[in-house]
Design a protein that fits this description.
The chain has one domain: HUPs (Rossmann fold, 3-Layer(aba) Sandwich). 48% of the residues lie in helices and 9% in strands. Helix 2 crosses helix 7. It starts with 12 loop residues before the first helix and ends with a helix. The mean pLDDT is 86.
Length: 288
Amino acid sequence: METTVIRMHPRSNRERKDAYESNKLVKRLRRLAGEAVADYGLIADGDKVMVCLSGGKDSYALLDVLMHFRAHAPVRFELVAVNLDQKQPGFPAHVLPEYLTALGVPFRIETQDTYSTVKRLIPEGKTMCSLCSRLRRGVLYRVAGELGATKIALGHHRDDMLETFLLNLFYSGQLKAMPPKLRSDDGKHVVIRPLIYCEEADLTAYAELRQFPIIPCNLCGSQDKLKRNEMKQLLREWEKRYPGRVETMLNSLRHLRASHLLDPQAFDFDRLPPSRGEGEWASQASEM
């Protein structure tokens, strides 16, 4: 009897390199997200985490990473994906239900026409982000309460946080960014950002690797000349000219020295021992 020998062609060097890099990317994103969860106590045993899924690369990656954590983390928690269908023209309403059903992830599609509200209230050419964000946040908070979610997970990443920091620094006169963990003003909800250490470039590569069914946004993300886009370009130029600067900026937000800033509410300068003549200066300052 003649034996047929099937010869397997070895993978090319290019294929091996691509597989190696892909594996590194997956491990890096999971490691950074895991560090954020551990550093800020983002997920606890028994949590029900509502993952806000927009159809963009970041929220897809967030769900993917949290699914991995749910299967391997030392704590037990639930996931439920929520999408807000804002009734944007041409929105492919079938994509997310089909994707989530295939994954076996519980989900809810909330339909509310915030698109028409934003278009009606914001003049053509003006930035829609602020109003769109407020409307979306209100709906998601309501849905989180109805679902009994203990955490609301958003897909903001490192670049989002640094862009927000620069926007507040340059345009709002505040040292403020995006926190990894935030309690809502009414105290009823906790928002978490597990991807806060992850680079946008890595998330873009991850979306391509996973072949997520990306749904483009026709509101905020489509506008030209946004100040956030200016900050994004600024960060890219800095990183290109001075590699490592963006990482240094991230580290600076983790090492606040309130005593070396100017906010008397963040640091009690009055508690410092008075220097010679300080009392006389203070008493006469109003007369100068």
